[in-house]
Design goal:
Number of domains: 4
CATH topology of the largest domain: Uracil-DNA Glycosylase, subunit E
Oligomer: single chain
Largest sheet: 5 strands, mixed
CATH architecture of the largest domain: 3-Layer(aba) Sandwich
Strand order of the largest sheet: 4-5-6-7-8
Strand content: 5-15%
Number of strands: 15
Distance between the termini: 54 Å
Helix content: 40-55%
Bound molecules: uracil
Radius of gyration: 27 Å
Amino acid sequence: MQTAMLPFDGWTVHLAGETDFAGWRVAARNLVLNDVPPESTLWNVSGTSSLADLPAVPAGAGLNVPRSFIERAEAVSCHADPQRFALLYRLLWRIREEPQLMKIASDPDVRRFEAMEKSVRRDIHKMRAFVRFRKIGDGAAERYVAWFEPQHFIVERNAPFFARRFTGMRWTILTPHASATWDGVSMAFGPGAARRDPPPEDATEDLWRTYFQSIFNPARLKVKAMQSEMPKKYWRNLPEASLIPQMIAHAEEAAKEMVARMPTSPSPHHARVQAKHWPIRESQAAAEEAEYPSIEETREAARHCRRCPLWRDATQTVFGEGPEGARIVFVGEQPGDREDIAGKPFVGPAGQIFDAVLEEAGIDRLKVYVTNAVKHFKFEPRGKRRIHSKPNAGEIRACRWWLDRELALTKPDAVVALGATAAQSLLGKAVPITRMRGGIIEREDGLPVFLTIHPSFILRIREREDKEAERQRFLDDMKAVRKLMRA
Ligand code: URA
């Protein structure tokens, strides 16, 4: 970073490059403490880093900025907008006078900051989803190269994710702005590249195409949704994208064929391919945790979950729903047939009882967070029907990572275990629900777990009177939960 006096009596700050956030921090702190207003600064990314020209910081001067602003500002600094560093400086300047500024969503600077942050995060996720490596060389010379065109300057920020995910590979990601190279031990960043630089197609691309074809479900084809998930601008760099027009054209025919076929289990070959290419190591968990700082980002990541094999036969991940600050979280067992298709928890027959009883108890479902211990539908195929099958301890354990993230992000006052699977997931051990229902167990982390039955239990009771009595008991439990919300 370099600074120079301007004729208009302001400061031009030259940062070392597009991603020199550290340089911006030093300069911004210095200029704010010297009371240099935003309109007297110009921010430029073409210079060589130098602190020498900055004015001295007045003795005893200090600056208190919320850590969350700095963290978010670092994300915004990756945006391609040339005015981003000026915007960050203006916000920093204003925060000194208005410490609550970042909470004013209607403020134009805050709005712009939030839109830029969102766009950078989205770009980061798209890169994670759409980078495709090509293999070059064999044996000791084996390495992988990918070409990607991000919208923003995100390569440096995103590289640690790829290092964790592809730790054992030697790879390079080339983009127009910068390149990142991982040699299995350390990361190096280099200049940008041109699109012709990556090596030509290879066998890895066939693997992607096979994978994409195998997960494509013609009966559930939604062209718009598919294009919003995989926008057209990314297609030219994706090997599997060449299949899309053809698959859309043949979808109707393929759907008919699929309905006629009995459901089958995934082939052993498919399972081996998955195990090799999507391994999840526990050591990644903590790092990934930090990657998903909001429910939205966690939900997006869960869409690609491969922590257990249940994803293979399910239509989609059914993640929790509700406000991030909900005071109560309800946890069911796993999505059923209807939830699997809708992608939402508790919308089928059990969900209807659940909704009706919540309403009678005076709990607004829109104000609580509703989720499941296991996020994929587990079933046994019976002809054309899919019969619910109970998740086992390994599947519950594998999925607990997502439930823990949901609880960490919503920070509820209490959580309601709807049935034995939820209780097992939340408490880490089996609990006799019929004996303990209506009771509360406090977890080691202090979170109270209210125990009750699963609403589908009511559905299974045949005798009308018994059914009604059980429904009433469930209603009493929900009223007790309502009191917890008031407490
Ligand atoms: N049963 C559950 O446990 N969860 C749902 O989402 C639906 C039915």
